[in-house]
Inverse folding.
């Protein structure tokens, strides 16, 4: 069970971002009723998709 949980969660790491980006992520997450991690992951996935074209 523990290995399944680790697979689902992926890798964790600390990330330092400027205050203005932090506030934007926090506000966007609240407005969309989502966790901040969801917003960050979505932004990273979008950038990856754009660069793969």
């Amino acid at each position: 069970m523990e290995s399944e949980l680790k697979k689902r969660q992926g890798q964790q790491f600390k990330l330092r971002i400027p205050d203005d980006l932090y506030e934007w992520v926090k506000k966007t997450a609240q407005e969309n009723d989502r966790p901040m991690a969801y917003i960050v992951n979505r932004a990273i996935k979008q950038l990856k998709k754009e660069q793969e074209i």
